[in-house]
Amino acid sequence: MPESAIQHLCPYLRQRQSYDPIPAPDPENRCALVSTLHLPPDYQAEYCLVGRYEACPRYQRQQGRPIPRYVRGARPVNVRPATPTVPMHALPWRRPRVRSALKWAVMALLLVLFVQLWRMRMAQVPALRVERVTPPAQTYEATPTPPAWYLPPTVGPEPW
């Protein structure tokens, strides 16, 4: 490709299967910013191939963003310098120490609230009373009865 033709091409114009675009309006040409988007030949002739790519809406939307990794050989887009910002301190609840202190304080508050609610509920519940029946006291004989001196017969007719 002649060097003068390359200077007029959009840096994001690519062929579908190749790195180099076709320098004429062709359905194989694709925009690398939106790789799946078909570029109509009249659109290529109006913006991509004649050096008017800076007026292209896709090219203008790319302003300020880095070049995608998949675009090889593209020239970087001229980015306006960033406006200086005033250094700001982090909000108090976003600082690490304050954040952990707030977390523990909330947990302690929830624990106290739970204990207080439990006490209030227990004050409303009547006391549980269980009536115990005491078993009668066992009595023991002072003199035990001696066992029989013979064993009853286990074999034989049964007396009735």
- Report the helical percentage: 25-40%
Largest sheet, in brief, is: 2 strands, antiparallel
Main sheet: which strands, in order across? Answer: 1-2
Q: Which regions are unreliable across 5 or more consecutive residues at pLDDT < 50?
A: none
Task: Look at the structure and give the mean pLDDT.
Answer: 78
Task: Report the total helices.
Answer: 4
- The termini sit apart by 132 Å
Summarize the model shown.
Helices cover 31% and strands 4% of the residues. With 160 residues, the chain is mainly alpha-helical. A two-stranded antiparallel sheet has the order 1-2.
Give a structural overview.
By secondary structure, the chain is mainly alpha-helical. Among the domains are: 3-62, no CATH class; 92-121. It contains four helices and two strands; from the N terminus they run αββααα. The protein has helices spanning 3-8, 41-48, 57-62, 96-124, and strands at 13-15, 29-31.
